[in-house]
Amino acid sequence: MFADSHCHLNYKGLAEQQPEILARARGRGVEAMLNIATRESEWDAVLATAERESDVWATVGIHPHEADQHPDVGTARLIERAQHPRVVGIGESGLDYFYDHSDRDRQQASFRAHLAACRATQLPIVVHTRDAEADTARILREELEQGAFPGVIHCFTASGAFADIALDLGFYISISGIVTFKNAKDLQETAARLPLDRLLIETDAPFLAPVPHRGKTGEPAFVADTAAFLADLRGEPLETLAHATRANFHTLFAKTRG
Prior knowledge:
The protein is α/β, with parallel strands linked by helices. The chain contains nine helices and eight strands. Helix 5 (133-144) links the parallel strand 5 (125-130) and strand 6.
């Protein structure tokens, strides 16, 4: 029933028990998982999982936290690795001004390199943005003016106004287990009104386990709990939300359709 549009199956906490993690996900109806890369050193491992598992796909990219450590990973290298049939998206990339683990100019340059690769390949960008709404919106607009590309704002926690900007730009919005948290009232208000045909769900595993698993290591199986909460929040049948978000996943990440 479900597609987990963003997880890190090769991160500590999941990598050591990957077969069991995948079995539990499949047992709860997760039929597609996107394994996200955040640094070049993990690209091969992320891709190997996608090669081995028919319901897992991969991205290549550099997280904004890692931008300072990857000055040589530019558009050409991303395009080259994105030719692999199991690579269905580029990222995650974007801007993180909350932690500022990398220089902001370096983050922006890396983000633009990823967007140029998306424009060239027509693969979707997986956007990470935190405390950087204005610059994220500005860069997306400027890069889209040079040519269209698809994308998703992953693990959405930004304002309702930013959600409207993202939708106007043609992007999808992915909701994580954060929506189940008691202190996520603003996010819940936004998630309740997002158009169903632009909605994705994700775990960001091993992070952000939803209620009732909060505090545990997140895993793709838990996307079913986020979906159930979100369906109730929106007043939709779970089957309707599951079908729509799964269809949206395969529409956005078109290479998953073979």
